[in-house]
Write a structure and sequence with these properties.
Glutaredoxin; four-stranded mixed β-sheet; globular
Length: 233
Amino acid sequence: MKDYRILIVEFTNLNILQKFYNIEFSLHQKFINRNIRINYKKSSINQITLIGFDGNIKYYTNKFTITEINRIFQLIDKMPMRLSNNYIYNKYNMLCGLPNEQQVNHCFNDATHQTCCLLGYKARKYSDDSGNPIGKVSEDMFKQQFDRLPDNNDLTPWCTCIGSQVCSYYADKFNDGTHIKFINNNGTIIYNLLSECEKNIVEKYNFFKHMTPGVNNNNKDISRNCQYSSFNL
């Protein structure tokens, strides 16, 4: 018996996933209060599946709507173990999908690790091979969250360096689902943005710039008029 619920979000493209993010961020406290861990999975279908404490499927839907998510909340609220939830959490790490472990204490807590990046399997391998060993540690944290190692369709969350635009570099380099989930700017959550707009955010909000092994964004164009949404966490 697990002490958390899992919501498996399978998506065929990032536009579909962004629909879910818009719902998740608008209802983020409700997800937190119900001890839900979200497993994002690149797939050939668009489907949301709720897994209960017992590991069994409780509900599934192919509709990425706020009505369906509220239906899932209502279902959880009727469950016999609803009141046994543990609400102790780090709000930024939980929103990103990271566990409360020592290895992530720096996340959203320094001058550069402010991008919540969902890493695909190619990006994970490249990062480790190129001297930025976040692939293996993100897989370890995924295992802490879901009690299993990720497969090639799972995206693993990590707090990447906005100062060198790690996430946008990997997203551009690999077609494996790698993308930015959100960027934290002193408690303001920036989301619903193209990964390629990470450098624009760096320039606009004067984030500290630095280099990262295997990452070269020096020639990236920042002339694009980038749009995004935001809310205060």
